[in-house]
Amino acid sequence: MKADVPSPFHGPRPAVPVLDEAIRRQRDDLRRILAAYGRNAGPNGLHDLRVALRRSAALGRLLGGHPGPKDGREVRKLADRLRRYLSPARQRQVSLELVRILTRKDEALHRLVATVLSSGRGISRHPGVADVQRSGGQVLSAMDEWRESISHGAHNRASNRKLGRSVERRVREGAREILEIGIPGRKALHPQRIACKKLRYELEILRDVVPGVERVVKASRRAQEVLGDAHDWDGLVQDLEKAAGTLPPREKRAIADLISRAKSNRRRTSLRAKDAMADFLPLVETLPHLVKPVS
To answer: What is the torsional sign of CA 167, 169, 172, 177?
Structure first.
């Protein structure tokens, strides 16, 4: 950060309000989404919950270790664990949505493929609401414990500088990961998508305190979306190929045509993802200058 840019991570004013408020906002958001998930465990509810868990894990990555070495680490671990548990169900939902697009003029084919994918021969079933609520409650409890540690920790110029250096180091690491992957081939689409997601949610935490970050956040969202489209079509191809192996020859031929069309969409969206990353990478290169190490 430039020396003449006010920041809660430098100077005599403690950064406690920024740290505590970031955790409080995310805790309240996660609690609200968990309650809504109990009423609606459909596609929108599952998507919103996984995003909230990514944001919770981002807090642990970016601000964890403050005020104590272990503070915030449990938030990241628990949020990531629950999100991974939900991933197969989310992939199932996305694949079914894409199948609907491909088969909108063939209801019989849609019923066949939807039945195969929903039967367990293709992808995993939906997780239980009670399990999700229980695991989500553990994330909320970890956030409350983190805030309790903050309220009792030592907060001064030295702790501010320690937190600032930690934040700056993590942002540089995130930028370096994206730059090392670069413009992705098919196998690197998913790793690059995950790297962009991590950086985006971490930068969102800093958007109010680091000038210039908002522009990178918006660009990362666009890159993440097109990378996600390509990844979704790739996931559908894999799900259909897996499902086709369980079917008799006639049904297998019908799905083979669907796989071919899904691969065509995968190629198209992969090209869009490469174009988006070509635009995004120069902005990522600016991050070390936006978030400068403290001397």
So the answer is: negative
Longest dimension (CA), the chain: 73
Question: How far is the C-alpha of 98 from the C-alpha of 104, rounded, in Å?
Answer: 10
Is residue 37 one of the residues assigned to a domain?
Answer: yes
As for how many domains the chain has, the answer is: 1
Is 5 part of a structural domain of the chain? no
In this structure, the chain runs to a length of 295
List pLDDT tens digits, range 31-40: 999 999 877 7
Q: Is the peptide bond before 6 cis (omega within 30 degrees of 0)?
A: no
Q: Which of 19, 74, 8, 57 is nearest to 199 (CA)?
A: 57
In angstroms, the CA 105 to CA 4 distance is 61
pTM of the predicted protein model = 0.86
- List, in sequence order, the alpha helices (H) in 66-128: 73-102, 107-118
pLDDT tens digits for range 85-113: 999 888 888 988 999 999 988 898 888 88
